[in-house]
Amino acid sequence: MRETAVEHVESWLDSFSEAAKGAGNLPWLRRLREDAFARFCETGFPTTRDEDWRFTNVSAIARTTFRPAGAAKVTAAEIAPYRVDGVAAQIVFVNGRFAPELSQLNRLPKGVTVASLRERMESHPQELEQHLGRYADIRRDPFCALNTAFLSDGAYVHVARGVVVEAPVYLLYLSTEESTPAMTHPRNLIVADDESQVSVIEDYASVGRESVVLSNAVTELIAGESATAQHYLIEREHLKAFNVQTLRIQQGRSANVASHSLLLGGGLVRNNVHPVLAGEGGECLINGLFLGTGRQHLDNYMHVEHASPHCGSRQFYNGILDQQAHGVFHGRIVVHKDAQKTDAKQTNRNLLLSDDAQIDTKPQLEIYADDVKCTHGATIGQIEENALFYLRSRGLSEAEARKLLLLAFAEECVERMHSAVAKELMERLIREHLLFLEQAPRVPSGPRITERAVEEVG
Amino acid sequence: MSLLEIKNLHVRVDGNEILKGIDLTVNAGEVHSIMGPNGSGKSTLAQVLARRDAYEITDGSVTLDGKDLLAMKPEEAACEGVFLAFQYPVEIPGIGNTYFLRSALNAQRKYRGQEEMDAMDFLPLFREKLALLEMDDKLMSRSLNEGFSGGEKKRNEILQMAILEPKLAILDETDSGLDIDALRIVANGVNSLRNPERAMLVVTHYQRLLNYIVPDFVHVLVDGRIVRSGGKELALELEEKGYSWAEPETAGVGASAAPALRRDGARA
Fold it and tell me: What is the DSSP secondary structure assignment for residue A104, as one 8-state letter?
């Protein structure tokens, strides 16, 4: 173990020992955590020398002393804006802890389980043991290791074989104001058994005044044979939040999975989507939209692994960046030796609304099979002057015309979503956010969050 | 007072003078045609009137109903009654045709202090105009001009014009790329919109369109100047003799390179 890899190693050790005390005593789980913590201590946080983190400097996270977020109460009035009509269930976490009084879990159809992972670990440990930690890679990603080391609660969603849940299951993660930098490590497990169908919305938001928080979430989504799963991610925390997301998808034969991401909030966001198409004939759609302003840093890291023949994957990401926002799209596609007849496509389109906004877009294809079709493309542009003039020449104000064009650009992503409930929610948030983009005060020029020292972040 | 008065208009693009002193008066109810070879400044004139800001106005004035048109933004000009049918209508994925048209109409109604139209009131008006242009309403559920054929795009321009009911309609090469059937439909649409309160400026390279939209006046624009004005017979004369005939001797050698017109109206 290299002792220098992690700054503030004592404080991490303190936090880890503290967390371990309350973590129950399942031996396999303890081992999982300890291995992960050892791994994290070994590697420390990634640096920009690491190819996977080339465009995202997380030293602001590394230099901050985070303590596990404390218990907090969220009032009925504070939760009201986060109620969504038409969902199958809503499970709420406050500072990483299950909040049963805020959750609505009583209308679930038969064959569907939505529960706190922590509670489920106590009541059905074997059920979780076969999946938990099996897919998320603590070797590859230090944030994944950190999440696993601090694994304590999150959502567990299980849909039994052949069961179809039309309405989405809504998972809400609220962070509250804290006096010192606080971290949560939500851990979710979604299991869709063979021939089942489920959609899940994961929503990260803040209540109260801005304070430094790190939300480091990992979701393992297992889709059995011919299962259909739709995953929706919303990141809308305040601008002092660090948010690292990892969605690890394991697809069985002919499974059809879609990941839809909407990144609006967070000062520094890293969204990892890592599907493994492990069974023949699987289909995967990765669809995302990121809207950045101020000095936000929004990093989208895709890692699509084709491990079986006859699978298809589609990646579509649209980005809109204003002021000094920095966006990243890193789309890695790995086609394994046996994954013949793979059909993989990747498209990243970006609109830069200011001279200072920045996008780094990087396709990365690694193909070890010889009969595959892989394409990628990226565009970076501005609002088209022609289109703007056309709309204005019919009487729309410049602001109105701009908004309409941005909305149309964003709408491409909404169109790819399936659930009407999720679509409506996303559309509302996008509209509100475009208004915010328009009215957001211009930040004075200065270093971005990825370039700032931690003292300034706090 | 005339509806449109252009006096000594000089316009530059990227430092090159494109319009070199245009004078033109258009009264309500009149249809004027501006004819000219490629590069003579026709489209520039059309776009300046619709207030595209890529142009530098170095001299002259333009008034619409006595108001300074050159001080207006594109949306203000539109709300004051200027409509430009684009030579190349823009495709905008993600914005619905119908939604866009109603938004535009309501923006203009709001500007004029009229009540906005809801979807229920708008629909019958929309249907009526669709029928006028023989357009399929399936087209309208699609995105703005997206995947439209050339003819469909031009018809969509005239549909917008029919709904927005401008005081001054400027048609920029509306005939280009149209087959004879589409041309007839577009011309019918335009003719049905002729009325004593409305003026039209029909910009075209060829005389063909003017068989269907018969102008009251024809002006020949060569190298940024109106070199000749007359009645509708001037268009026919031009057709026969070519633009070089219309030019004054002073226009010099460069202008004689302007392409001659062929009877079938195809590009030489």
Answer: B
Burial A123-144 (b: 16+ CB within 10 A, else e): eeeebbeebbbebbebebbbbb
At B211 the three-state DSSP class reads: helix
Predicted TM-score (pTM) of this structure: 0.88
Q: Under an 8 A CB cutoff, do A411 and B50 touch? A: no
Predicted ipTM of the assembly: 0.91
Q: Which two tokens stand for residue A380?
A: 């970076």
Q: A190 and A222 in contact (C-beta within 8 Å)?
A: yes
Cβ of A398 under 8 Å from any chain B Cβ? Answer: yes
Task: Domain ranges for chain A, please list them.
Answer: 3-382+417-457, 385-415
- How do residues A162-185 score in pLDDT, each as one tens digit? 999 999 999 999 999 999 999 999
- Residues (pLDDT < 70) of chain B are 248-268
Alpha-helix residue ranges (DSSP H) falling in A304-453: 385-392, 398-415, 420-439
Q: Hey, CA dihedral for A72, A73, A79, A84, is it positive or negative?
A: positive
pLDDT at A75 over 50: yes
Alpha-carbon distance B224 to A285, whole Å? 54
Residue A275 to residue A421: CA distance in whole angstroms: 24
Task: Name which of B74, B95, B105 is nearest A404 (Cβ-Cβ).
Answer: B95
Contacts of B157 in chain A (CB under 8 A): none
What's the token pair of residue A211? 């304070």
Q: Report the SS3 class of residue B197.
A: coil
Work out the pLDDT band at A62, boundaries 50, 70, 90.
very high
Q: Do A408 and B94 touch (CB under 8 A)?
A: yes
The predicted-structure confidence for A434-458, as pLDDT tens digits, reads as follows 988 888 888 877 666 665 443 333 2
Residue A293 has pLDDT above 80, yes or no: yes
Residue contact B92–A390, C-beta within 8 A: yes
What kind and span of H or E run contains B64? strand B56-64
Whether B92 and A389 lie within 8 Å, measured CB to CB: no
